[in-house]
């Protein structure tokens, strides 16, 4: 049964989804060089092909006879079930989530909110539950969703983990691996390490604490972006925004032991009229933000 926690009324803004902004919670899987094409095209001969891959923050090699660029280790596949109390072995699984769009509620803007700001808001998404997978990462890959889709995208909602001293004692009943040592999670540091080094430093779980609701973060993702939640990361179940359902292929490890595979907390508002809510901008506002970010 999920643990229940109380959250004060809070409005959570949406941030740009980039490798750097999402690094404390996992990785964004996307083409790091979308304007760079493989060296071979229909009007090139084999003799004219370059053998050196383009500069990239992620290791890359030329593959498939020059017709592809292969980016290496774009996300970490983490299996910590060897530390689970049950001792039951895990297996790699792939599932599909068919996610319908969520309903947003109107923003009851207070008088001090300007008309310009109010018209840029599509609505509010109330956060009622968070979950984590303490012994595995979880990767969501959208299918059939264009990066330029004018009507549909998805919300990525995550929270840091509180130290146990600041959390609820009830979390002691939740099995988790040992909390990790602090390490750099920037894009360069993540991909400059070998998978073995990254496994030791960046993927040891988050500890047994409750979610830090005061520092919850929200991002809007497009069809060109998949996301990996690092092992033990508190996150909301998938939230699709827009007009149609989105299919997600999901990869993770699991051992079919309930609270070793998934742990949940229910979020109750502190007051009847208060809620922990994400302020969802209208799609054109999100696109403008993304374009501005791309020019930086």
Mean pLDDT comes to: 81
Task: Report the CATH architecture.
Answer: Sandwich
Which fold name is given in CATH as the topology?
Answer: Jelly Rolls
Subunit arrangement of the protein: single chain
N→C terminal distance: 46 Å
Residue stretches low in confidence (pLDDT < 50, at least 5 long) are: 43-49, 110-115, 180-202, 285-296
Portion in helices: 10-25%
CATH superfamily: Ureidoglycolate hydrolase
CATH class term: Mainly Beta
Largest sheet: 5 strands, mixed
Number of helices: 6
Overall spatial form: globular
What class, by secondary structure content?
Answer: alpha+beta
The tally of structural domains comes to: 1
- What percent strand? 25-35%
Number of strands: 18
Give the SSE order as H and E letters: EEEHEEEEHEEEEHHEEEEEHEEH
Q: What value does the Rg take, in angstroms?
A: 21 Å
Topology:
Elements: E1 3-7, E2 10-12, E3 14-16, H1 19-22, E4 26-29, E5 60-63, E6 68-71, E7 91-99, H2 115-119, E8 121-126, E9 129-132, E10 138-143, E11 153-159, H3 187-192, H4 195-202, E12 217-221, E13 226-229, E14 234-235, E15 239-241, E16 246-254, H5 258-261, E17 263-269, E18 276-281, H6 283-294
Parallel strand pairs: 1-17, 2-18, 3-12
Antiparallel strand pairs: 4-13, 5-6, 7-16, 8-18, 9-17, 10-13, 10-16, 11-12, 11-14, 11-15
Describe, in plain words, how this protein is organized in 3D.
With 296 residues, the protein is of the alpha+beta class. It has one domain (3-36, 76-294): Jelly Rolls (Sandwich). Helices cover 13% and strands 31% of the residues. The protein has 6 helices and 18 strands. The strands form 5 sheets. Strands 3, 11, 12, 14 and 15 form a 5-stranded mixed sheet that branches. Strands 4-13-10-16-7 form a 5-stranded antiparallel sheet, with no helix packed on it. The protein starts with a strand and ends with a helix. Residues 26-58 are annotated as: Disordered. GO terms for molecular function: ureidoglycolate hydrolase activity; ureidoglycolate lyase activity. Homodimer.
